[in-house]
Amino acid sequence: MSVLTVRVRRKAFGPVVVLRDVDFTVAAGETPAVPGPSGVGKSMLLRIVAGLDPDFDGSVARPERLAMVFQEPTLLPWRTALANLTLTTGVDTAGAQAALAEVGLAGKGALFPRQLSLGQKRRLGLARAFAARPELLLMDEPFASLDAERIEKMLALTERLVAAMRPAALFVTHSAVEAARLPTRVLRLAPRG
Amino acid sequence: MNEVAAVAAVAINKIPTVTAMMREGARAMDPALDAMARVFRMDRLARLRHVVAPQPAPHIASAARSGISLIWKIVRAVGFLGRSSGIGFKIHLYFQFFDVTMVLVYALASVAVMLAIETLLLQPIETRARAWRTA
Question: Most buried residue among A57, A59, A107, B33 by CB atoms closer than 10 A?
Answer without folding.
Answer: B33
